[in-house]
Design goal:
The protein is α/β, with parallel strands linked by helices. The chain is built from 22 helices and 20 strands.
């Protein structure tokens, strides 16, 4: 990856700005000095209810391809987003890139233009251009874009980093970005791609180099999988740690470039030059590494599977089913001034999405509108990829695509309005922990603070929707036995010595496990407790089982249904993971193994 090819935003994020990294150049040149160490954190949480509701309504007339004359005289609102199939609901609600005759958006009196932009840095620039003109006194700016759509788990990174730029430019708090709702959900489309061995034995990922958009949702999916399987993650994209999972930043913050990096490396031997690090210190050596995998989404996944063999999808948003919503972000000050307009955009999207859930004619029309909006592939391609498809190459099977759209019932459930389980808050808070704990590319030095959920999300627009049947929230079915392991990880959940009473720091770990369970909401769980060799063998069986039960009780108390727990067992001191001859080893052996199954 050449520096000259990076955008201003990418350079800012990677180099952190001169003020934040005075010492960075020193440690890059001086072997043995401390750098950002690879870390093992707790994995993301998933939930116990599948967000996929259906409200029975009559079939509506399809949007035409004819431009809407009815809204042509109204102020134009622009929303920019990636080429991403989880946006199909809002796209068909608009009839395509611009509002068409007979579309739900026209019915709501909205004149909307949807803009494809695959570079995260340019999405940010479009939104800042809009705010510049709004600050100059124009209520409906014509420059830039009022809103952007990105992966919801990438929002803490996007909002916090962009907020820093806004504060620096206009003063703290004058303008704020907020999520006003979600209009879809990735359900397999976003994924980690790599050799099948990573799926069969996640420990074989140790030392891997993966290309992705760092800080965005697919990076989160990969980090989540690593931590769920007890692997360390190297947060510095300029270094290589053989004992951790490593990342390289895709050029221009572009997920398609992440796919191209893997293809180029596997076909042409392309390598990346990285500073070697061991135990958090630079060794003074430089290594040239091929790229082993990528984290990307459709059409990036199909691009990889068409071009090379020997790879498959390792983990995706089908396993972490509530992780990645299609978040819609507006400047707070503009959205509140134009609240009826924002609510109307959401309402039209939810109505069209519910039509897609019921009628194939609407799914076909959505694929046509998506193709026209993205100006790539064919309508049949987007239709197939929305459902998700399977393929096989050289005996290795793989999955591509897979998306969902949100109706009003889905949105209310996802944000906890109907059932009290705020799935998005669990995602947002856990990713915020990742950013703080991992400090990818020096994030914490460049960004003064991570914007908390309470400031970053505004549900008033969602709650203001009227005259649209919200239906009832769906509930998950846990009656079937789960046999497929999604991930298995070990946590050091601190208990009082010789007891099954949780210490305060142990509860902090369990909160992170809870967040992961909210994201993989339709999964089931095995809990296996372990002890060190202190005390009697018989007593340790009982103690380890009691500790596993304590974890179960805590999670049930947080709202995880008892039906999700498939096996609770204590194995005492029989399966140590470290040497019981040392205090550090004993501490590692006092653990609970949580296995997520589907």
């Amino acid at each position: 990856m050449q520096w000259s090819k990076l955008t201003f935003f990418s350079k800012t994020l990677i180099t952190l700005g001169a003020a934040g990294i005075i010492g960075f150049g020193v440690y890059k040149l001086a072997p043995g000095l401390k750098t950002e160490a690879s870390r093992q954190l707790e994995k993301l949480d998933v939930s116990d209810k599948d967000v996929n509701n259906l409200v029975s309504t009559d079939e509506l007339a399809l949007p035409t391809n004819e431009p809407s004359a009815k809204v042509a005289g109204k102020p134009l609102v622009k929303i920019a987003g990636y080429a991403w199939n989880a946006q199909s609901g809002i796209i068909v609600a608009n009839g395509g890139p611009k509002t068409t005759k007979g579309s739900p958006m026209e019915t709501e009196g909205v004149n909307l233009e949807l803009i494809r932009q695959d570079w995260l840095s340019e999405l940010r620039n479009l939104q800042i251009k809009f705010i510049d003109e709004f600050d100059a006194g124009k209520n409906m700016p014509t420059e830039g874009a009022a809103g952007i759509m990105i992966m919801g788990d990438g929002v803490p990174f996007y909002i916090s980093s962009t907020q820093q730029a806004l504060d620096d430019k206009y003063g703290a708090g004058k303008y704020q970005l907020q999520v006003v709702g979600a209009v879809g959900l990735s359900y397999g489309e976003d994924k980690l791609i790599g050799p099948p061995s990573w799926k069969l034995n996640p420990q074989s990922m140790k030392g891997a180099l993966i290309s992705t958009v760092i800080g965005d949702g697919d990076w989160v999916t990969t980090v989540n999988y690593a931590f769920a399987n007890g692997l360390k993650v190297n947060p510095d994209p300029a270094t290589y740690d053989a004992d951790a999972v490593n990342f390289v930043a895709a050029a221009n913050d572009d997920y398609i470039e992440a796919s191209k990096d893997l293809i180029k490396s596997q076909r042409e031997g392309y390598t990346v030059s990285l500073k070697e690090v061991k135990d958090g210190k630079l060794t003074g050596k430089t290594v040239n590494r091929k790229i082993d995998g990528c984290a990307t989404w459709t059409p990036g996944d199909k691009m990889v599977f068409d071009a090379i063999g020997g790879v498959t999808d390792i983990v995706s948003t089908k396993e972490f089913n509530n992780q990645m919503a299609t978040a819609l972000i507006f400047p707070k000050q503009w959205a509140e001034k134009n609240s009826t307009l924002v609510t109307s955009i959401l309402k039209a999207s939810f109505e069209a999405s519910n039509q897609m859930k019921q009628y194939d004619s609407w799914r076909v029309r959505a694929s046509e509108a998506t193709q026209k909006t993205f100006a790539m592939e064919t309508p049949q391609y987007w239709y197939d990829m929305f459902k998700g498809t399977k393929g096989e190459k050289n005996g290795i099977s793989y999955n591509m695509g897979g998306s969902r759209v949100f109706n009003l019932a889905d949105a209310n459930q996802y944000f906890g309005v109907t059932d009290g389980t705020n799935r998005y808050k669990a995602v947002y808070d856990q990713v915020s922990r990742y950013l703080k704990g991992l400090n990818p590319a020096g994030f914490n030095q460049n960004v003064k603070r991570i914007v908390p959920y309470e400031e970053a999300v505004n549900l008033s627009f969602l709650k203001a929707i009227q005259n649209l049947d919200a239906g009832k929230a769906n509930t998950a079915d846990y009656t079937q036995k789960a046999t497929s392991v999604v991930a298995s990880g070990e946590w050091r959940i601190n208990f009082e010595s010789g007891r099954a009473s949780l210490r305060p720091e142990g509860k902090d770990v369990l909160e992170q496990i809870y967040n992961l369970l909210i994201q993989a909401e339709d999964s089931k769980l095995d809990l296996i407790g372990h002890t060190d060799n202190t005390g009697t063998k018989v007593g340790n069986y009982s103690l380890s089982a009691a500790r596993a039960e304590a974890v179960k009780s805590y999670l049930i108390g947080r709202g995880i249904p008892a039906a999700r727990f498939q096996k609770i067992e204590g194995k005492g001191q029989d399966e140590p993971s470290a040497d019981n001859a040392t205090e550090a080893g004993k501490a590692q052996n006092r653990r609970v193994v949580v296995t997520i199954l589907k």
